[in-house]
Design a protein that fits this description.
This protein is of the alpha+beta class. Helix content is 20%, strand content 34%. The longest helix has 10 residues, at 56-65. It is globular and about 30 Å long.
Length: 76
């Protein structure tokens, strides 16, 4: 299982996550911040849990590209 988290409040809207993993991230037209698609929010953290292991590599690339380090991707 892949677990991806996003701390959306700290997003600066650089768009790197969308470039690396467009199937999991998109930019909000309302505030210009990243949105983790199909995620659940709890205390400011947006979490996506998926059994599709093919999303891990793109999400890991998004994690590495994020200049404010608000994305984590892990395999559990």
């Amino acid at each position: 299982m892949v677990v991806v988290t996003l701390q959306r409040q700290k997003c600066i809207g650089c768009n790197y996550c969308v470039e690396m993993a467009p199937a999991q991230f998109q930019m909000s037209k309302k505030d210009g911040k990243s949105v983790l698609l199909r995620s659940n929010e709890k205390k400011g953290f947006y979490t996506l849990k998926s059994h599709d292991n093919s999303i891990f590599d793109p999400c890991l690339q998004a994690q590495k590209a994020c200049p404010v380090k608000i994305i984590t991707a892990k395999m559990i």
